Amino acid sequence: MSAQCDYSFGIEEEFFLVRPETRQLAAQVPARLLKRARAELGESIESELLQAQIEIASPVQCDMAQARRQLGQLRRGLSELAGEHGLALLAAGTHPLGLWREQIETDKPRYRRLVEDFQIVARRSLVCGLHVHVQLPDDVDRVQAMNRAMPWLPLFLALSASSPFWDRLRTGLMSYRQAMYDEWPRTGIPDFFADEAAYDAFAAVLVRAGAIADASSLWWAIRPSPNYPTVELRIADACTRLDDSLAIAALYRCLMRHLAMHPTQAPPYDAALRRVIDENRWRAKRFGLQAQFLDQQGRTEPALEQLRRLRELCAEDARALDCVEALQALDAIVERGNSAQAQLACYREQRERGASRSAALRGVVDWLLQTTVSGL
Predict the structure, then answer these.
(1) I need a labelling partner for 268 at 20 to 30 A (CA). Which of 71, 97, 145, 291 fits?
(2) pLDDT of 22-76, one tens digit each?
């Protein structure tokens, strides 16, 4: 991944394919849909482990407004093509009516190997995420930048949380996707590595032992991309609204520029900080934007206050990268809540009107289907 601009970036959005008349996942998807989507929309469209999932991977971007236009066109185009095959596009970390036992894996060698290696963990992986890549200057060590970004990771999860339902039940979590993803090895918050050389040496140990084929099987919440010269944010749930995806991507891009421009601003890396970050990740999973994050002294800070502080910290970076307008969507998230909050509000409203649990979940799916493509 390269582009003639500072801090170029890319966005990957995963979606569910749904049969709109039943609101159920499309366990089997015609192979011609992916073939046609790639022919008409380009190689930005990718398959996923399960047939009910599909991904949009943006081209390399330099400008947030252009990224919105391109991703909007891709969402709209993919939605229209899915509609021609009797399917609809849904963006969320989990599908409220999804049943993992009914899903069928995509017939590709890579996915067959994943299922063979990880068994029920792979078959249960009925979740969708948002990944953001940011390219740093050549003289910036990606792993050292990753270390310094890690304390902010729970905030990005809180902003994106969109998976309060699993197996047709309210989970009590705002991001069940993160809880489910913890079943996989080599996920969650990584440890602090001294630099890229130390990170690569660790990956080489696992490769020599036959544990992994290459570093792409290190699936942590943030990582130096094995395929591009970027640092990849992986903690976020799939965002129902495109503007939310773009705002989170813009905020992450501004953070990475700030860290690159201020290399001496770094906390001491130790086991306590690593565990505090993981505690805050749990709080983001459980409470989303209502989380109270803690520091190493035991003080707490509301997630929304941490967001205000991060935006203030990165204000100059936002201006330098022309991200100010894209970041305004964060105000909307604060005002109305994230997707998980909206889904739960929709569910409660339907239940209060006397709807059964299954009918209320169908109402949530209807909201997700409409919101995924509204405003494009």
Answers:
(1) 291
(2) 999 999 999 999 999 999 999 999 999 999 999 999 999 999 999 999 999 999 9
Exposure of 264 by Cβ count < 10 A (0-12 exposed, 13-18 middle, 19+ buried)? exposed
- Contact status, residue 370 vs residue 79, Cβ threshold 8 Å: no
Q: What are 300-335's pLDDT values in tens digits?
A: 999 999 999 999 999 999 999 999 999 999 999 999
Q: Is the pLDDT of residue 346 over 60?
A: yes
CA distance 189 to 185: 12
The span from the CA of 33 to the CA of 91, in Å, is 18
Report the SS3 class of residue 229: coil
Q: What percent of the chain has pLDDT over 90?
A: 95
What backbone torsions phi and psi does residue 88 show, to the nearest 5 degrees? -135, 160
**DSSP codes, 12-72:** EEEEEEEETTTTEE-SS--HHHHHHHHHHH-TTEEE-SBTTEEEEEPPPBS-HHHHHHHHH
Which of 13, 17, 163 minimizes the C-alpha distance to 89? Answer: 17
Structure tokens at 348: 């409660």
Structure tokens at 149: 């970004």
Q: What letter would DSSP give residue 135?
A: E
Give the ranges where the chain is alpha helix by DSSP (H). Answer: 31-41, 64-84, 109-118, 120-123, 142-149, 153-160, 176-181, 196-208, 242-261, 271-287, 303-313, 315-320, 324-327, 329-336, 339-352, 357-373
Determine whether 303 is exposed, middle or buried from the number of CB atoms within 10 Å of its CB (0-12, 13-18, 19+).
buried
Name the helix (H) or strand (E) containing 130: strand 129-135
**Torsion, CA 316, CA 318, CA 195, CA 183, rounded to 10:** 140
b/e burial code for range 331-353 (CB count within 10 A of at least 16 → b):
eebeeebbbbbbbbebbeebeee
Give whole-number Cα distances, 358 to 74, 97, 112, 284, 344, in Å. Answer: 31, 8, 33, 27, 14
Q: Within its chain, how far is the Cα of 8 from the centroid? A: 18
The answer, yes or no, to whether residue 2 has pLDDT greater than 70, is no
What tokens does 317 get? 């970076």
